[in-house]
Each structure stands twice: as structure tokens, then as C-alpha cells.
Amino acid sequence: MSIVIRDVREHELDSILALNNNAGSAILPLDAARVRSFYDNAEYFRVAERDGNLAGFLVGFGSDSDHDSCNFAWFKERYPHFFYIDRIVVASRRRGGGVGRAFYADVQSYAELRYPLLCCEVFLDHGADPALLFHGSFGFHEAGQNVMPDVDVRASMMTKELCSYGWVRETYGDELPDLPWVGKPRRHAAGANQATGT
Predict the structure, then answer these.
(1) Number of domains in the chain
(2) Rounded to the nearest 5°, which phi and psi values hold at 68?
(3) b/e for 29-52, b at 16 or more Cβ within 10 A?
(4) What angle do CA 23, 76, 120 make, to 5 degrees?
(5) Rounded CA gap, 119 and 60, in Å?
(6) CB–CB of 62/185 below 8 Å?
(7) CATH number of the CATH domain containing 15
(8) pLDDT score, position 191
(9) How many CB atoms lie within 10 A of CB 105?
(10) Starting at the edge strand that comes first in sequence, how are the strands of the sheet with 44-50 ordered?
(11) Is 21 exposed, middle or buried (0-12, 13-18, 19+ CB in 10 A)?
């Protein structure tokens, strides 16, 4: 069956929390308040659906966000304009089935219209070779390492230049065409919906 990538729905937040906290040691645990904060503030918060079931999720923030992650802060100290993947989680039964690749294709399509750089981290203390190889196959490289002080976890800080950004910026400036596949940042779309009552 095909993989559908779509925006998360509010009633799915409990399922997102369970999916995250069952993912194992390569993903930091969350609580309900943090998942709600992602829902309210993340620029990109999408789920993968396969066979009618949630197969994973990805959360991301633009560099102008006030996101409080220490890894986000590491990138912010070094780069003026970027899109940060805070976390990607794929259900254990779906790993190796293309869900992660579908997410990365989708998030890159979103980010390259708006940002010159895609950033993420890979934890190095929990058997990182599959994750490093996965990211390397997408064109990421290590820009440095960061030890997360609250959890004492060492992370490889990875970046990927988005070569389409320059052309898109030069051609369209700040006004992207109103096309369904372009989409709008979630926080702006949510604000517009609240303002109009839709």
C-alpha cells in the first residue's frame, strides 16, 4: 500500500505521544505538554499513514522560531537561515519500508522553497550507523558535534544545502505561488484559520 504524508490532526496527539515513547533509546521521550507545544508551534508537523494507520511523524521548525531545543540553538548560533528537523519517528513495524524516505522527500520539498539549509542531529551513543548512513544517502554531512547537557547525549549535527532555494528566492522572492503542493507553514495557516473561524 502507498504511504500518505499529511498534516497531523489534533485528535492524533495521544497516538503521536505513544509512538514517540515506544521508539527506543534513539529518540528522547516526550510528555503530552511537549507534543501539544509541537502542535501549536511547529512549522511542519506531519504524519505518515499506511494501510489506514499512523506509521510515523516528523516535526520541524524554521530558524526564526523560538524553539527551545539545545540542538536547535546550536544551529542557530552558526547559521542565519535554516530549517531544523527536530525529530522523525517511524513505528518499529514500518521501519525499512520507505516511510523515512517519504518523510525526507516531503520535508525537503517544503524546506527548499523557504530555506537554504536543512539541519538535523543523529544521536551517536545508541548504535548510530543506520541513521548516519540514512542521512548520508540524502546528502547530509556532519557540521560538528553537540553534547546535550540535560541528557548527556552526544549528537552529530548534520546539514544539507538545499540547492533549489537560491533559484526559488531569486524568482519568487517572499511570495510563493498559491499552489496546493506548495502549502503554507502550519503556524501561519493555523492563525489564519483561527482568525476566520474556519
Answers:
(1) 1
(2) -105, 15
(3) ebeeeebeebbebbbbbbbbbbee
(4) 30
(5) 10
(6) yes
(7) 3.40.630.30
(8) 44
(9) 13
(10) 3-7, 44-50, 53-62, 83-90, 117-123, 153-161, 141-148
(11) middle
**Residues of the chain below pLDDT 70:** 1, 92-97, 126, 187-198
Alpha carbon distance 8, 48 (integer Å): 9
What domain range is 38 assigned to?
A: 3-171
Tell me the pLDDT tens digit for each residue of 76-88: 999 999 999 999 9
Q: What pLDDT score was predicted for residue 195?
A: 36
Q: So what's the pLDDT on residue 1? A: 62
Q: Looking at the DSSP assignment, which residues form a beta bridge with residue 148?
A: 153
> What's residue 117's pLDDT?
98
* Residue 183 lies inside a defined structural domain of this protein: no
In a domain, 157, yes or no: yes
Q: Which three cell numbers stand for residue 95?
A: 521501519
- Contact criterion met (CB below 8 Å) for 41 and 187: yes
Q: What is the pLDDT of residue 96?
A: 56
Question: What residues contact 88, with CB distance under 8 A and at least 6 apart?
Answer: 56, 57, 58, 59, 100, 103, 104, 120
- Give phi and psi for 147, each to the nearest 5: -100, 120
- The grid coordinates listed for 115 are 530555506
